[in-house]
Specification:
Elements: H1 12-24, H2 34-47, E1 49-53, H3 75-78, H4 83-86, H5 100-109, E2 114-120, H6 146-156, E3 160-166, H7 191-205, E4 214-218, H8 227-240, E5 245-246, E6 288-292, H9 309-321, E7 325-330, H10 340-356, E8 374-381, E9 384-391, E10 399-402, E11 409-414, E12 417-421, E13 424-427, E14 430-434, E15 445-452, E16 462-465, E17 469-470, E18 474-479, E19 486-490, E20 501-502, E21 507-509, E22 513-521, E23 524-525, E24 530-536, E25 549-550, E26 552-558, E27 572-578, E28 593-603, E29 607-616, E30 619-623, E31 626-631, E32 638-646, E33 649-659, E34 665-672, E35 678-679, E36 685-687
Parallel strand pairs: 1-2, 1-7, 2-3, 3-4, 4-5, 6-7, 17-24
Antiparallel strand pairs: 8-9, 9-15, 10-14, 11-12, 11-15, 13-14, 16-18, 18-21, 19-20, 19-22, 22-23, 22-24, 25-36, 26-27, 26-28, 28-33, 28-36, 29-32, 29-34, 30-31, 30-33, 34-35
The structure holds ligand FHN.
């Protein structure tokens, strides 16, 4: 039993619980309409750039455990350190070089507008003085409320103070599920009691430290958390601080590492892509990419693989060009300092932001499609629009082309030399800017272009279809965000001209074809030509089988994997049958477990089929021995698609799945291309 129990199990905390009950009052859902959310999000949408800090007891081992130096903030789990052993770090946490002002000044100088720090990570240790737990910073030799010092420094430097807080808690005796490798009993654990403890600490964080910008929840993916806890927690935050912003990890259905909620009923103000940047902007969706500077969130002393400053600047620009925020992480040392590599990068980013920050702050996503030379952000300015052209690749001929724009050009200049005017001329539907020979900043140089009025973007049509392979005729449509333009297309591979077919309704392709499309304004081509090729294929033949029984064969394996193993080389624990591709009811374990499903799937007709394999952790789908979906790896619940042409009849199917720790999930959906995907009915599965 952990020597550090939360005070929840004794009388002290009942005072806080009573207080909480009083402040939660009528605990109905906190209605946040669009106007309220826009009001709360205003500073956030302007800010665009923040500092993430992962700091806690895990900084003491600094990624190393028994000669393995590949750990970080997950070290308690990845090194399977029992609670009692991990608690030893409490007596060693003494970051005597911690200087809140120095941290905030570095963030400020980097151009960052908010700081999100781990008030408690998954290991359960509180970096703040918590009344509901004695597993906190006041029990360490340091005995200072780090969060209070940081909050005060943020106020001094006009920086938003924000809390990361983990729902998952590997220390609290009432948190479930236990780690699969733990010997600590779950006997007597009461998850609802844990939730009250969690709410108690959130109440402290939003009561004792002044105005807080964001509650950044995390660790919401395990099976014990649900919308029934997430929504009330979101409501509690807004009841305590009506101006606070809450990310979407307060609730479930965040869509894995892509971080965009898959259910619009889920609580949370913005999406949280992690270690990735969406391929395009997400109109109408607020989102923030969080990213490490190296490979770890928490400090790893042996780490040398840091992203370059150029990479980090270009990621900031890419994210802003898509309308997102960038939350860039630093993992401080056990002494309380930033790693030198992080210090250097923050300073270099700050030097770039000093010159170019206006092209990031308060801008909105580019209305253009991709441009080959860089990224674009935009800022409406009354009767004109300002475009910030972020140039990564300086044109060797000095001509920077902005394609497909109908506006009359105004002034243009370099942010690095506001005195020098850049000549702009119209060439057909494009604007050509004549740039000076030398690129002012090799990482990214910014050209400002002002145009009259709102943007008139001649976007090339997007050619849309359910698949690019076909067995049966397939419907093709053309879409464009531009208004007042005609889309014309060809099916013979030639570039569309003013006489080409005018697009009015979706059309059908029934043979191998290259579709080309282009936008026209009053008969003049005003966009690039887009194209998409379609290939007619033969469906994979069905197999001749007979004497089949209902359901699939399921084999169970046990192991500690980060990727799907070769189950043929594993010791099979058991074998049986199951109705469909789903996790067994009441399995004997949900962690360190793998299943292989095998049998046949009955395909109703010759067609192209799109399968969606959803899993937490990794999974793989094979049809007739060919990989159709590879959703392998350690991740939250996420779905990946695969397309395959199949003839009517029986086809061999194998699904492989594993879960390491935490949440577990498995589902298989499918549909003929163009139709709505649905779970594969059990009646479609057969086995020998
Ligand atoms: O498990 C955590 C991880 O340690 C880190 O805190 C990241 C940052 O967003 N969030 C979780 C992984 O998705």
């Amino acid at each position: 039993m952990s020597r550090f129990r939360t005070l929840f199990s004794c009388g002290m905390v009942s005072i806080l619980v009573l207080t909480m009950a009083a402040c939660s009052g009528g605990a109905g859902r906190f209605e946040t309409d669009k106007d309220d959310k826009d009001r709360r999000m205003e500073w956030w949408r302007e800010a665009r750039f923040g500092l993430f800090i992962h700091w806690g007891l895990y900084s003491i081992p600094a990624g190393e455990w028994k000669d393995d130096t590949h750990h970080a903030e997950w070290i308690m789990t990845t090194a399977q350190i029992p609670v009692e052993e991990y608690e030893q770090f409490l007596g060693e946490f003494n970051p005597v070089e911690f200087d809140a002002d120095a941290w905030v000044r570095m963030a400020k100088a980097a151009g960052m507008k908010y700081i999100v720090i781990t008030s408690k990570h998954h290991d359960g240790f509180a970096l703040f003085d918590s009344e509901v737990s004695d597993y906190d910073v006041m029990e360490t030799p340091f005995k200072r409320d780090i969060m209070a010092e940081l909050a005060e420094a943020c106020r001094r430097h006009d920086m938003k103070m924000c809390w990361y807080h983990s729902i998952m808690d590997w220390h609290h005796p009432d948190y479930l599920p236990r780690r699969g490798w733990e010997t600590r009993s779950a006997e007597g654990a009461d998850f609802d009691r844990y939730v009250e403890y969690l709410r108690g600490q959130v109440t402290e964080l939003l009561t004792n430290y002044g105005d807080i910008g964001i509650m950044w929840f995390d660790g919401e993916w395990e099976s014990t958390w649900s919308h029934d806890y997430g929504q009330p927690l979101f409501d509690l935050c807004l009841e305590l601080q009506p101006d606070v912003i809450v990310n979407n990890r307060v609730d479930v259905n965040r869509g894995g590492m892509e971080g965009i909620s898959t259910d619009d009923r889920s609580a949370g103000d913005y999406g949280t892509p992690e270690q990735q940047i969406p391929a395009t902007g997400l109109p109408g969706v607020d989102w923030e990419t969080c990213m490490t500077m190296n490979r770890y969130w928490g400090y790893n002393r042996a780490e040398t693989q840091y992203k370059s400053t150029r990479e980090l600047i270009r990621m900031l620009v890419d994210i802003a060009s898509k309308g997102g925020n960038y939350l860039l992480n630093v993992g401080p040392t056990p002494e309380g300092t930033f790693p030198q590599e992080s210090i250097e990068r923050l300073a270099e980013i700050g030097a770039w932001m000093d010159v170019n920050g206006e092209s990031i702050y308060g801008t909105t996503a580019s209305p253009f499609g991709a441009v080959p030379w860089g990224r674009i952000t935009m800022e409406p300015q009354g009767r004109k629009t300002r475009f910030y052209l972020h140039v990564f690749d300086w044109p060797t001929d000095g001509q920077l082309i902005l394609p497909g724009i109908g506006n009359r050009p105004g002034r243009a200049w370099l942010l690095s030399d506001r005195g020098e005017r850049i000549p702009v001329e119209r060439v057909d539907s494009d604007l050509h800017l004549s740039l000076p020979a030398g690129m002012p900043d090799e990482d990214c140089s910014v050209v400002v272009l002002e145009v009259k009025g709102e943007p008139i973007v001649y976007e090339a049509p997007t050619i849309e279809a359910a698949a690019t392979i076909l067995v049966n005729p397939i419907s093709v449509s053309l879409t464009s965000r531009s208004t007042g333009l005609e889309s014309r297309y060809t099916l013979d591979g030639s570039d569309p001209d003013a006489r080409s077919t005018l697009y009015e309704d979706p059309f059908t392709v029934s043979a191998s074809t290259t579709v080309k499309a282009r936008s026209f304004h009053e008969g003049v081509p005003v966009s690039a030509v887009t194209e998409k090729s379609f290939t007619r294929v033969e469906p994979a033949p069905a197999v001749e089988v007979s004497g089949l029984r209902d359901g699939l064969t399921i084999e169970e394996y046990h192991g500690n994997w980060d990727l799907l193993p070769d189950f043929d080389r594993q010791r099979r624990v058991s074998s049986g049958s199951i109705a469909d591709v789903s996790l067994p009811d009441a399995p004997d374990r949900v962690e360190y477990v793998g299943y292989r499903y095998s049998g046949y799937i009955g395909i109703p007709r010759d067609d192209i089929y799109i399968f969606t394999l959803v899993s937490d952790d990794g999974s793989r789908l094979l049809i007739d021995g060919n990989v159709v979906v590879d959703n392998d790896g350690l991740h939250g619940s996420q779905g990946l698609e695969g397309t395959v042409p199949l003839a009517a009849g029986a086809h061999e199917i194998v699904v492989e799945w594993f879960n390491k720790t935490g949440g577990a999930d498995l589902d298989l959906l499918f549909a003929p291309a163009g139709e709505r995907a649905a779970r594969v009915p059990a009646s479609f599965f057969k086995r020998r």
